[in-house]
Design a protein that fits this description.
Length: about 300
């Protein structure tokens, strides 16, 4: 098998046209889905291996159901099921799975594990999440923003408030590719990745996007059309939870903060949400339509990614 169609590791790797193509393709797939028909058998006879070193609800269900709707099948592989969990080198796992499968999705901790898997695989590799990036989710969020705010993303202003984590990093890359204005507000001690800040700024010059980091959440949300947040303690950071609650308390997305945003602001959250921490109950429920549409859209966007990478 040959890796003719590449990998999906980071939005930084795509050009703006490729991002727009995936968003348009996802819309076609979602429209077909809501007619009551599954999508054409674009991946009939294909198999996706799903490696989970980090568990998930939405990632597993959306990829597995997505492959089914595309006519293929998905194979769940936890770290306990693979020799990876017993010390087999990633490069060996990549070369073995390349002989059995048509694509690999991996959700893991270290981003370097995804890069090494892709370098040694002859089939497409999809980043389902790493500690550095979450490109499937942010592409989904761009798709959701188009649904609620229109296709002209470069006219919109977005704010991300909270931890400078994989979501913040991927929002920087995503906004840069579509020419959007994005302000990321985090504590200075929890800024987005320094390399991502540099490389996304270079991407932004090509599209006219405006990217900014600030410690001030009020500055970030001023006149924003979209405000996004994420959990303050990601998986693997549970022992830091109480300390993080104190650090991030000023970054809660609540009604008082949203007074500074545009009157038509929508709030996004990739879930799971911890009400009373990064977002209040009332703000979450006021934006539930957006948040759960965002959750559904993982299915359609990831189908677009899989079909693009794995079709003959």
């Amino acid at each position: 098998m040959a890796k003719d169609n590449g990998d999906f590791i980071s939005l930084h790797d795509l050009n703006p046209g490729q991002v727009e193509y995936l968003l348009d393709f996802a819309l076609d797939l979602k429209t077909t889905y809501h007619t009551g028909k599954f999508t054409p058998d674009l991946l009939k006879g294909k198999t996706l291996g799903m490696i989970f070193e980090k568990s998930s609800t939405r990632t597993r269900v959306s990829f597995e159901v997505g492959m089914y709707q595309l006519g293929g099948s998905a194979l769940f592989l936890s770290s306990r099921d693979l020799q990876l969990g017993r010390g087999e080198p990633i490069k060996d796992t990549a070369r073995v799975l390349s002989r059995y499968l048509d694509g690999i999705m991996i959700r893991t901790f270290g981003h370097d594990r995804i890069v090494e898997l892709a370098q040694n695989s002859t089939i497409p590799v999809i980043n389902g999440l790493s500690d550095l990036l979450h490109p499937c989710q942010v592409l989904t969020d761009l798709f959701t923003i188009r649904e609620f705010k229109g296709k002209r993303l470069h006219n919109l202003k977005m704010a991300y408030v909270g931890d400078g984590n994989n979501m913040a990093n991927s929002y920087l890359y995503g906004a840069a590719k579509v020419g959007m204005t994005l302000t990321v507000a985090t504590p200075k001690s929890h800024k987005p990745n320094a390399k991502v800040l540099r490389t996304s700024a270079l991407d932004a010059r090509k599209t006219g996007a405006e990217l900014k980091w600030t410690e001030d959440p009020i500055e970030a949300v001023k006149d924003a059309d979209i405000v996004a947040t994420d959990t303050w303690a990601s998986m693997g950071q549970e022992d830091e939870h109480e300390a993080r609650k104190k650090i991030f308390a000023p970054y809660q997305v609540n009604a008082e903060l949203l007074k500074h945003a545009d009157k038509g602001v929508i709030v996004m959250h990739c879930l799971p949400a911890y009400r009373g921490e990064e977002i209040t109950e009332d703000v979450f429920e006021d934006n539930a339509e957006v948040i759960f549409e965002e959750a559904e859209n993982r299915l359609h966007v990831q189908k677009a990614i899989m079909a693009t990478l794995m079709m003959d």
